[in-house]
Amino acid sequence: MTNMNPQQLEAVKHVDGPCLVIAGPGSGKTTVITHRTKYLVTDCKKEAGSILVITFTRAAAGEMKARFDRLTEDRHYPVSFGTFHSIFFRILKLAYRYEARDIIREEERVQIIRELVEKYDIEAEDEAEFVSSILSEISSVKGEMLDLSYYYSKNCSESIFKKLFEGYEKNLRNKRKIDFDDMLVMCYELFVQRKDILKAWQKKYQYILVDEFQDINRIQYEIVRMLAGPENNLFIVGDDDQSIYRFRGAKPEIMLGFEKDYPDAKKVILDINYRSQETIVQAAGRLISCNKERFQKNIRAVKSGGKPVSARIYEEAQTEALGIIRDIWDYTKAGYQLKDMAVLYRTSLEPRLLVERLMEYNVPFKMRDALPNLYEHWISRNIIAYIQVALGCMERGRVLEIINRPKRYVSRDALEGQTVNWEAVKSFYQDKGWMVERIEQLEYDLKMIGKMAPVAAVNYIRKASGYDDYLREYAEYRRMKPEELLEVADQLQESAAGFKTFDAWFLHMEEYKKELAAQARSQMDGGGQDRDCISLMTMHSAKGLEFKIVFILDANEGVTPHKKAVLEADLEEERRMFYVAATRAKERLHICSVKERYGKKQEMSRFVEECFYGRRK
User: Which residues contact 119 (CB under 8 A, 6 or more apart)?
Assistant: First the structure.
């Protein structure tokens, strides 16, 4: 402990009672947790089996245990390291004799919702996305202990969500299974109803340490509070400025309110950053100081000086991608390796152009997140189907993809056989002149599309054929902002602009698909850990990582902060996300933005100005 600063030592040597440790980026929080655990066992002679260290991921729990074992020279002290779910499942296992096979598998959960969607005849263009969103909402309702009667669904009407939620729960009970959220709910109910069982676990775990406390949700907190009583030897470590998982139910306000729940809690701020150069720490500090709901802190850097943070504005996305690649090569010429660098972005929709240019210039890269294939999105599939039909592919399946997008009210029965014949379709509606007119208009549109260049064809489908109107109507039905769907069409149109012929564009789509598949295989094989390649990832995935050089892509209003962020709480979360991205950089931080996207003017993100000047007056 000789190398520790006074704040770290103060945290490590705290023994009894509650303690709140606010750990800024690169301030050595894992070091503090592992050293404090060792201090309790070796210096304070506390029973190792009475210490519980809770993390949010199995990987973090494994790393924490490995570091503790190294500190204690592998003496195998029986300290419990685990995730919330693993600890709570252990409790349920002993109380109810649950086994691992009683936990429902993810694919079973998906299948339950799929069957309910079919049962209630719910329209969803992208069923996988809809099912995933509903499962996420079910998880939120359970994790936040919400009353279903007052819950407002983000994806469908309240009556439909209620049917899906209740149908899902009934299915679980019939299968005699529990999901991960049930573990928390059942553990909470067990402790409330069986004080004897709660007392036994309180006796077992006398000292509780919680890592990444800013990511805790309501039910996890309530269980931990019960478990820590009555002594309340609760040692929590986190950074309210790095709370970026509200969409998963994380509540930064729980950490902010800790001192109200525990008025006698000691508070220690780890405010020395050992990771980043002073210029980066200061810029990030100016940015995050614009948030109101936070603990006030002044993070200082050990590494003084450093190159200024760079903010570059490019004309449009193509020049931005090429500019980043040019910078990457300049850094390699200066002696940096590709694996020293990362490109971070707000959502996985953004890096497609950069990925395509990296492929074109043979720059090795790896993606931490699976990048969705733009060309396989249902909107892209619809537009591509329009083009394929226009080029003469009259397969029934292809025609079905376009015939009622937008709604033309053409019956499936009108499309007979494996190959569609427009004369036969018109014959089907011979007594309905207005329907014949609609089909003739579609025939005309398809004839026009077939003669156009790719970008003009996409624009015609969207504007003249009414596909954008169809997207707006669908967005309203799904309680989405139409911009979310229109952006996919914008991206496809942007891609089409790079090709003169449909054949060249379709060939590019195939090559892009192969590269994404290769990236996915690489991740499965361990992510190509030893390869010298640049890392691409979302801001969420970058948390906990560090790189010598970081590029932030598309620092524009509507991207970061995201267009969905309307409320003040949402904007503060977006700012925290940008803060997390900025503080991944050790030596250089490049913030990139564009003046124009999809033919529309773009405004630089307010976060860029805040990095340099702090809060706007």
Answer: 167
3-state SS class at 230: coil
Tell me what pLDDT residue 126 has. 83
Q: Can you give the pLDDT at residue 251?
A: 85
Stated as kind and residue range, the H or E segment containing 574 is helix 568-582
**Number of C-beta neighbours around residue 592 at 10 A:** 25
Low-confidence ranges of the chain (pLDDT < 50): none
Alpha-carbon span 506 to 494, nearest angstrom: 14
Q: How far apart are CA 521 and CA 515, in angstroms?
A: 10
- Residue 614 has a pLDDT of 82
Which residues are registered as beta bridge partners of 52?
80, 208
Q: Residues with Cβ < 8 Å from 475, sequence gap 6 or more?
A: 481, 482, 484, 485
Structure tokens at 12: 């490590």
Cβ–Cβ under 8 Å, residues 390 and 457: yes
73 HSE (CA, 13 A, CB side): 1
Q: Is the pTM of this model over 0.85?
A: yes
Indicate the pairing of strand 207-210 with strand 80-83: unpaired
* Spatial separation of the C-alpha atoms in residues 41 and 431, rounded to whole Å: 88
Q: Look at residue 431 in the predicted model and tell me its pLDDT.
A: 87
Task: Tell me if residue 228 falls in helix, strand or coil.
Answer: helix
Would you state the pLDDT for residue 509?
A: 94
Question: CB neighbours of 59 closer than 8 A, spacing ≥ 6?
Answer: none
**Which residue blocks in 122-179 are alpha helix, DSSP H?**
127-143, 158-175
d(CA 476, CA 470): 10
Distance CA(303)–CA(160), nearest Å, equals 55
Per the CB < 8 A criterion, the answer to whether 516 and 217 are in contact is: no
Maximum pairwise Cα distance, the chain: 92
Distance, in Å, from the CA atom of 529 to the CA atom of 522, rounded to the nearest integer, reads 9
Structural contact between residues 349 and 561, judged by C-beta atoms closer than 8 angstroms: no
Query: Among candidates 96, 68, 63, which has minimal Cα distance to 193?
Result: 96
Token digits for 58? 């199995």
How far from chain centre, in Å, is Cα 340? 23
**CA-to-CA separations, 543 to 91, 481, 500, 519, in angstroms, rounded:** 30, 28, 41, 21
Q: What's the Cα-to-Cα distance from 262 to each of 251, 254, 265, 467, rounded to whole Å?
A: 17, 12, 5, 57
pLDDT of 478: 83
Are 406 and 467 spatial neighbours (Cβ–Cβ below 8 Å)?
yes
Cα gap 594→300, rounded to integer Å:
31
CA angle 268, 269, 271 (to 5 degrees): 150
Residue 11 has what pLDDT?
97
Tokens of 221: 């907190």
Give me the pLDDT at residue 313, please: 96
CA distance linking residue 45 with residue 189, whole number of Å: 34
| End-to-end Cα, the chain, rounded Å | 44
Under 8 Å between Cβ of 442 and 408: yes
The amino acid at residue 149 is S
Look at residue 528 in the predicted model and tell me its pLDDT: 52
